């Protein structure tokens, strides 16, 4: 076997073995067996919320196990392919092995990122809120660009999403929007996106064609679960209803179906207007409120401002990424220094490299503090 292939296969085997140690396949098999017993129970769906939790967890674990088994099988097959190609002096086989080596390395790297998501809420789905900050109409337009970026990222990965609330700006773009990404580890993955994003471009809204800088804030929250015990007494809530509206003030419907909930003890305000009925909007708003209260409870418990949420303060003090469209083309993460020269691709959802480097950067910081 060529020395370079032997070294590459050794490195991949070591990386995959390390991943297997962290993910504990034996422990996962035991949990899968237990969940399969619960799924087979005839009364499982008497409690739909628990049934969904059980079946979802089972699906995640089975997928994870299949992924590990597949990677180990591919690594073993690649070693055989390289040996065959070398013995027969077959250039086509060696070229096929080179292609598979690249693909396998990418797959193992992606799974390694998954092992770094070990925070308290990292396994959960995510609720993402985007707000226009400094920059007027350009900031509102930038906020809508970021929203599309994350929704396209989710679409590329086949992750379901649900938009809870969109507040449109008067001229263009959005004042704010809140949506859910319904996939395992969505919170752990997207939480590195928290902070202020900065856009530099020639403003399409400036008649003189001047360069403008605008800002938008991104907040990522973990979805609450039954075990979180977030109490919401009715006396702590003020619930207002209003008429949903779309861009330009056009009415989405003719009934007061939109819901705004104020949590009186904390002053937290959430709203939802994208569902068709008032009850659906209320339920969605309560989910967002619970997520915010869950985050606040953790911050209070750990006495660490921004332990998860990040500093959403002024536009200049918490910048985490710059998107430059003029005078050159570049997107750069200000924490990791990772950058690409294809803003169009980034705005179309190609943000995995930023997520991966952000997760590694966060993990290295956690290890340094330990």
TrEMBL record:
Q: What is the protein name stated in its UniProt record?
A: Peptide chain release factor 2
State the GO CC annotations: cytoplasm
The record's GO molecular-function terms, alphabetically, read: translation release factor activity, codon specific
Which family is it part of? Belongs to the prokaryotic/mitochondrial release factor family.
Tell me the PANTHER family matching this sequence: CLASS I PEPTIDE CHAIN RELEASE FACTOR, PEPTIDE CHAIN RELEASE FACTOR 2
Query: Sorted alphabetically, which keywords does the UniProt record give?
Result: Cytoplasm, Methylation, Protein biosynthesis
Supply the Gene3D superfamilies for this chain: 3.30.160.20, 3.30.70.1660, Release factor
Organism for this UniProt entry: Auraticoccus monumenti
Please state where this protein is localized.
Answer: Cytoplasm
**InterPro entries linked to this entry:** PCRF, Pep_chain_release_fac_I, Pep_chain_release_fac_I_sf, PrfB
Q: What is its main location?
A: cytoplasm
* Annotated SUPFAM superfamilies: Release factor (SSF75620)
């Amino acid at each position: 076997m060529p020395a370079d292939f032997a070294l590459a296969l050794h490195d991949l085997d070591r990386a995959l073995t390390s991943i297997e140690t962290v993910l504990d396949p034996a422990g996962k098999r035991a949990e899968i067996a237990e969940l399969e017993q619960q799924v087979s129970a005839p009364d499982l769906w008497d409690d739909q919320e628990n049934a969904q939790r059980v079946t979802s967890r089972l699906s995640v674990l089975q997928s994870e196990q299949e992924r590990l088994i597949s990677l180990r099988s591919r690594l073993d097959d690649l070693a055989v392919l390289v040996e065959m190609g070398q013995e027969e002096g077959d250039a086509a086989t060696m070229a096929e092995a080179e292609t598979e080596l690249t693909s396998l390395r990418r797959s193992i790297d992606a799974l390694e990122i998954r092992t770094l998501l070990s925070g308290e809420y990292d396994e959960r789905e995510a609720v993402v809120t985007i707000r226009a900050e400094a920059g007027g109409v350009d900031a509102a337009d930038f906020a809508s660009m970021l929203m599309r970026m994350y929704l396209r990222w989710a679409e590329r990965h086949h992750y379901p999403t649900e938009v809870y609330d969109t507040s449109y700006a008067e001229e263009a773009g959005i004042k704010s929007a809140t949506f859910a990404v319904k996939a395992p580890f969505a919170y752990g993955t997207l939480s590195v996106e928290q902070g202020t994003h900065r856009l530099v471009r020639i403003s399409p809204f400036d008649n003189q064609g001047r360069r403008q800088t605008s800002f938008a804030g991104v907040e990522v929250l973990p979805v609450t679960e039954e075990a979180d015990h977030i109490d919401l007494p009715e006396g702590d809530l003020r619930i207002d209803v209003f008429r949903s509206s779309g861009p330009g003030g056009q009415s989405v419907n003719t009934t007061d179906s939109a819901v705004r909930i104020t949590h009186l003890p904390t002053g937290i305000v959430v709203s939802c207007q994208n569902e068709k009925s008032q009850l659906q909007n209320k339920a969605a708003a309560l989910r967002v409120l619970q997520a915010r209260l869950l985050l606040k409870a953790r911050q209070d418990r750990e006495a660490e401002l921004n332990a998860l949420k990040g500093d959403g303060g002024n536009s200049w003090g918490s910048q985490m990424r710059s998107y430059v469209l003029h005078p050159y083309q570049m997107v750069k993460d200000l924490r990791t220094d990772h950058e690409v020269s294809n803003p169009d691709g980034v705005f179309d959802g190609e943000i995995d490299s930023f997520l991966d480097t952000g997760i590694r950067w966060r993990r290295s910081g956690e290890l340094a503090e330990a």
